[in-house]
């Protein structure tokens, strides 16, 4: 499919052919959901831990009479029912990661790109370069392109462009090697440079 290419000042810079096998699929929510769950589960630290009965520093001396106390015959203050005692079956450090085949992850990235095309949220620019490092200047340029909440992908992040855009609260910058389903879907717009399109097509073919 043919798509217009814009310059950073919002003027036209020609057009580009997008591969239908990557950008023209019918988005499948089930595949996108599986990949988002995979990403979010994998990034959890899993360092949660509660002290159990054998880890609590408490007396193990019998603290009451065997008979006549009117209650249970306890012999350890570390028991879970006492204040300061160990947690019964508490959380342990573990990995939250789930398995997802590489083919499904690649397919999910194609569907995420296709979803942005389908709802008209994809913008192609010729290059992500800027002559100034002022945030105000690049914010004005983005306003002309109707970019407020967006992910910008390029083959490599230009230093001046990165400095100018990094303080914009709704804009994220990523090199094309870091393209992922979650970051693409959570932003309203996806902005790709021509180099990023070439990189994605080479990666996903």
From TrEMBL:
Subunit structure: Part of the 50S ribosomal subunit.
Keyword Ribonucleoprotein: yes
Stored InterPro entries: Ribosomal_uL4, Ribosomal_uL4-like, Ribosomal_uL4_dom_sf
Name this polypeptide is given: Large ribosomal subunit protein uL4
Family: Belongs to the universal ribosomal protein uL4 family.
Protein's UniProt keywords contain Protease: no
Any one GO CC term of the record: ribosome
Location of the region described as Disordered in the Swiss-Prot/TrEMBL record: 43-97
Gene3D superfamilies hit by this protein: 3.40.1370.10
Alphabetical UniProt keywords: Ribonucleoprotein, Ribosomal protein, RNA-binding, rRNA-binding
NCBIfam families: rplD_bact
Function noted in UniProt: Forms part of the polypeptide exit tunnel.
């Amino acid at each position: 499919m043919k798509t217009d290419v814009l310059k950073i000042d919002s003027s036209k810079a020609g057009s580009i052919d997008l591969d239908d096998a990557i950008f023209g699929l019918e988005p499948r929510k089930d595949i996108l959901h599986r990949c988002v769950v995979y990403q979010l589960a994998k990034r959890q630290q899993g360092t949660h831990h509660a002290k159990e009965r054998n880890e609590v520093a408490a007396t193990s001396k019998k603290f009451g009479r065997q008979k006549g106390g009117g209650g249970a015959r306890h012999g350890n203050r570390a028991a879970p029912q006492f204040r300061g005692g160990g947690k019964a079956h508490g959380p342990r450090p573990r990995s939250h990661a789930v398995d997802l085949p590489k083919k499904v992850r690649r397919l999910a990235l194609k569907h995420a790109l296709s979803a942005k095309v389908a709802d008209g949220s994809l913008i192609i620019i010729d290059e992500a370069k800027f002559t100034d490092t002022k945030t105000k200047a690049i914010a004005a340029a983005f306003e002309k392109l109707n970019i407020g909440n967006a992910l910008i992908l390029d083959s490599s992040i230009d230093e001046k462009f990165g400095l100018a855009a990094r303080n914009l609260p709704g804009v994220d910058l990523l090199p094309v090697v870091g393209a992922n389903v979650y970051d693409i879907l959570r932003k309203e717009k996806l902005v790709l440079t021509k180099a990023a399109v070439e990189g994605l097509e080479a990666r996903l073919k």
